[in-house]
Structures are given as structure tokens and as C-alpha cells.
Amino acid sequence: MQTKAGQHILIRRMVEQDIASVYQIEQDTASDPWDEKIFLSCAKIYDAFVAILADNTVIGFGIIVVYDNIQEAHIINLAVDINWQNQGIGSLLLQHLMNNKVNKIFLEVNVNNLAAISLYEKFHFKRVGIRKNYYNTKDGKEDALVLLHVPALQAK
């Protein structure tokens, strides 16, 4: 994929050398950021991916847990470097995460994160619930929308 600025973007598996960059993106974008140990663990046990430039600069990441036994998945984190937002990288990462043979994909998103909600709804995620006080913020707690994507419904 190429960005609006003509940069070529590649999606590949997250490796240990990516963790510092992923952590920085998380620090810059999340109200209650994960620590580096969580990302290192996720890179080892889940399907974790990074969006990179040709020079291997990490500009975004996404992590999904796939439960093969029940044919469901849970997107647990997705973020794009603030300098690369609104250039299609979030869409590219989301499409990559959704490329699983599952019946349902769930995720939570902060009720105030309108850009992320818009992205997920563009990919046919539907609002199915609210998790009260799910996110910690500097001002207290905020709710999360629970979103669901059912790929079979999109094929019709």
C-alpha cells in the first residue's frame, strides 16, 4: 500500500526489536498505555503486527487474539503514530487483522474516540454493548463501546 504522501507501507509480524517503537506510539495515543512488557508478551503469544515504512520505521500496530476453538477473535489493541494518522494506515492494519477465518470479531473502543469508532463502523462493526468505566484516564474512568463484526453477514 502507498500512503497519500506516496510512502510504501508494509504489514509484518511484530518482533522484539519493534517494541520500543510500538511502546512510543502507545504512549502518544492511549489514555492508559500498556507497558513494554505487555507488548513483548503479546508479540510472542498473539497475532501482533506492525505497519512499517521501507526503512523499517514502525508507524502503527495491531494485535488480535484468535480463539480457533470457538472461531472468534478479539482485537485487543490498534494504534497509528500521531504523525501518520488519517492516511489509511489504521484501515490497512484493521483489514490485516480481520483476515482470519473466524465467525465473529469483537473489540472495545473508548466512547469518546470518534475517529476509531468511525473506522470500525466503516468496516461494518456494529455496536453491541457498553463496558462501564472500562478505560482509565487522567480524569477518571470512561466507558467503552463493545463492537462486533460478523464476516458472514458481510458476504451476503
Fold blueprint:
Elements: E1 10-13, H1 19-29, H2 36-45, E2 47-52, E3 58-67, E4 72-80, H3 89-97, E5 104-110, H4 114-122, E6 126-137, E7 140-149, H5 151-154
Parallel strand pairs: 4-5
Antiparallel strand pairs: 1-2, 2-3, 3-4, 5-7, 6-7
Describe the structure.
The protein is an alpha+beta fold and 156 residues long. It has one domain (10-154): Aminopeptidase (3-Layer(aba) Sandwich). The protein is 28% helix and 37% strand. The protein has five helices and seven strands; from the N terminus they run βααβββαβαββα. It has a seven-stranded mixed β-sheet, sandwiched between helices. The longest helix is centred in the first third of the chain and has 11 residues, at 19-29. The chain is globular, with a radius of gyration of 15 Å. The two termini are 27 Å apart.
